[in-house]
Amino acid sequence: MPVPLRVIQWATGGVGRAAVEGVLLHPDLELVGCYVHSEAKHGVDVGEIVGREPIGVTATTDVDEILAMDADCVVYTPLVGDPRVVSRILRSGKNVVTPVGWIYPGERQRVHLEAACAEGRVSLHGTGVNPGGVPDLHPLMFSSLSSAVTYVRGEEFSDIRTYDAPDVVRHVMCFGGTPEEARSGPMLELLSAGFARSVQMCLDVLGFSADSEIRSTLDLAVATAPIDSPIGVIEPGRVAGQRFVWEGVVRDQVVVRVAVNWLMGDQHLEPAWDFGAEGERFEVEVRGDPDTFVTIKGWQPDTIAEGLLRNPGVVVTAMHCVNSIPYVVAAPTGVRTYVDLPLVAGRAHPDLA
Question: Contact 197/103 with Cβ under 8 angstroms?
Answer without folding.
Answer: yes
